């Protein structure tokens, strides 16, 4: 079916889910061997980008319930990335945010930001000293 530019499909096609783990691994590799990075910290940083953008996008569309739900979901200790993707596939408004997020996470901008953050030492593995343990408590 051909679409004219002014016509909208009733539902957007769903963008593929970018793998947060694969994105983190690519960024760690791109940062170079001189920069050691904790993969869990890099994944957390990427999720923090999502946590910043998704509520903003929902609030711009006056969908405050979704914005709050995403904030609460991402703050949970037992949060799993698949929960977020499933939540975002639930209705057309959420699907739009899901597609924006997939596009953002697949962008060179996010890649460059994460690589730069790694190179600045923001994701260096913890040394495991008593001082480090005290800082975590």
CA radius of gyration is 18 Å
List SSEs in N-to-C order. Answer: HHHHHHH
Uncertain segments are 1-10, 129-137
Shape: elongated
Task: Explain how this protein is built.
The radius of gyration is 18 Å and the shape is elongated. The longest helix is centred in the middle third of the chain and has 22 residues, at 39-60. It contains seven helices and no strands. The model is unreliable at 1-10 and 129-137 (pLDDT under 50). With 137 residues, it is an all-alpha fold.
List the main descriptive attributes of the protein structure presented here.
64% helix, mainly alpha
Question: What is the secondary structure topology, with strand pairs?
Answer:
Blueprint: H1 20-31, H2 39-60, H3 64-75, H4 81-88, H5 92-105, H6 108-119, H7 130-136
Helix pairs in contact: 1-2, 1-6, 2-3, 2-5
Summarize the structure.
The chain has 137 residues and is mostly helical.
